[in-house]
Structures
1.
Amino acid sequence: MQRPWGLSGPEFLQYYWIALAVCVVIAIIVRVRVKAGNDQPVRTLDLDELAYLAGGPRRVVEASIARLLTAEALRTSRRGAVQSTGSVHVVNPIDLAVIADAERYTNRTISLLVPNVAKDYAVTTIGTRLHQAGLILDRDEVKSRLRKGAIPLWLLLVVGIVRWVNGIGIGAPVGWLTLQLVITGLLIFIVTRRGRLMRTSKGDRVLSQARSGGATGGATGPASLEYAGAAGLVALGGLLAYPDLTVRSALMAAPYNSGSGYVSSGSSCSTASSCSSGSSCSSGSSCGGGGGCGGGCGGGS
Amino acid sequence: MVAEEGTELLPKLGVGIGWRSEIDLTVERLPGVDFVEVVAENIHIGHLPESVALLRERGVPILPHAVSLSLGGAEEVDAQRVRHLAEVAEALDAPLVSDHVCFVRAGGLDSGHLMPVPRTRDALAVLVANVKAAQQDLPVPLALENVAALLEWPDGELTEGQFLAELVSQTDCYLLVDVANLYANARNLGTDPDRFLDEIPLERLAYVHVAGGVEHGELYHDTHAHAVRQEVLDLLDELCSRVAPPGVLLERDDNYPSDTEIATELAAIRAVVEKHQ
């Protein structure tokens, strides 16, 4: 029996299993440490931050929509098109971004509004704050650290491939080694997957406390009051949690994929109107104006 | 039901609001909406908006309001448009339909506006012929509305009130009086609203429109996109002091305010109406 590198085939396989186990443990430790977050004390989160923690940037926009609907600053039609009423003065920067988006377009459905506003600085800056507070994970940083954690597995794989090529060359049986290489490849894929790794353990704990009715960081305070109402429900549960069934149905009427919320897909759905009237009135309404009112409306119905 | 001697029965409508798809949920849920009006051209037979169907199920009267018959035009009335209006009326089980005393197209061109009709006897004859032609194909009574105009055609032989009175006399149509248009014409053309109300046959009043507008320079624009002015409510008050209108409807077509503001406008209208009851 040939002994390449001074190891028989069974001996190499045995050492490979041991090395593979060690590499996996290293990768798991890295993953756990990534998830752990930092040691900063938890401060009280406002509703927008809680929404981000619960569902990412989209959830922040959804909570804002709920808040604006409740305040009558925004209304929805049955087909899920939202409009600003112009009746309420808003100061929250996310609310302002939502209102601005709704006013920029006619028949703006939430399927288009939410992903667009989710990219607004007012929303993304919340993510930055939560990351600095050690509550959520930075997507790129997570990816980088998980990849580093998989380096031992990659090295082991390279060693195994060299042994496998050598085995083929000398006509040695490589069935078990082939299986080990496949398993190693699968493990590399698994340990480098970001998956639903979005919140730190601390973030999970804060969110869990908020869901159970507390505020944050184990302390109850004014924030718990802020989490009440439709916006609070939506912050934690998405638009499906909006308490008014009719409005909820309207909001969900337009093609909309809430998704995990943390990843902006950038996709958008067209919701073309079919409101062709064949009317002589270009607006399709009987609106007045007596001329000169703009907007193509008719003349003084 | 209210009825005048020798006339068809028209329902007591109450206080209503123009149904628009943008505010469909609002209209459905506002308290005190006794009836609604839909723009007939926006309704597709067989594909009634869910909200309209819901209101119909609730028994809320829904009145089709047309904007495209062009009854004041020199051309014959488009039978297809009349047929569509008739179909909408039947689909909604509407007690009456309405359009405007105006023309919106000529020579194959659409104006995009409700253009005033010259108040001459010749123009009246054309209008009367078109109205009679339309009435023949409509399953329910037709009401016609005074429009807001920024110009008056020269050589008018009749005042607006006289013109409408003659129209009613010759066609047996009903009147849809828009007090906001009346106000706009008073502001922009110097029409005397009191004389208008003196001259029109108030017993043929089907219902009343109320709407908001805005001033641009020296002109008042009946935009339906701004709040109802007190002066318009004062005109409604004047009208209600003369006759109890079967219905009064708030028209809003753009820049829709909050539900609370719309409810407040409806309440203000109702207060004027109930003041005279």
2.
Amino acid sequence: MTLFEQAHSRREALRVAAIAAAVVALTPRLAFAKPEEVKAEIDKLYGAREMTTGKLKLDMPEIAENGLVVPINIEVESPMTEADYVKSVSVFAEGNPFPRVLTYRFTPACGRAAASLRMRLAQTQNVIAVAETSTGQLYTARSEVKVTIGGCGG
Amino acid sequence: MATKTSARVRVPPKAKKDEIIEVKTLVSHEMESGVRKDASGKIVPRDIINTFTAAFNGAVVFEADWFPSISANPYQAFFFKAKESGEFTFTWKDDNGQETTAKAKLEVA
């Protein structure tokens, strides 16, 4: 094999590898929700209204070793009285097959607008929460979680 | 679903008036997301619990809508302000219309 042929075949191998990497990188993307879809869902549920940060806390691990069970804690600062309570909280995932994760409906009987559960994360992504109070205020929070092994199957 | 759904609930049996207690629930369910393929490459149809409802003495106090991103065997914790003695009823509903219920008593001193 001449030097030229060697270089050529190596280039060919690199090209094939690059295409394969691109295919691998692109294929799963198609099946996942995108940030724009999450935004569209939020607009659909809560309207394109102004949101403030700070009152809603979305507590998730920075790194999730197992994407099948990622703990998520939500808490909204609120007096939780008949006059002023948190009506709902919704959670969205930017990198899962479906943008919506959950919606909670609280009542003043809860005493505290907080809840926790475990969710699936297919890949490293942003998780976004939106809360609406009975007075019409909207709060938002986001959390980036790095996922070592993705959940959701497929 | 191949296995029967079973639920576990943890509520403190006694609380003081106006005390805020934590209610913890766990239900067994595969939460089939509808995107997973079986060994033959066919997509396994979606079957998840889509609603969880907690009521106290008949009045709904907390509700959750769940989507396929919720982990299998869903755990759900939330809070409740104790006002009077009574009973919680928890209901989980899945895509196939199967309902699972659990009850727990609370005594308020």
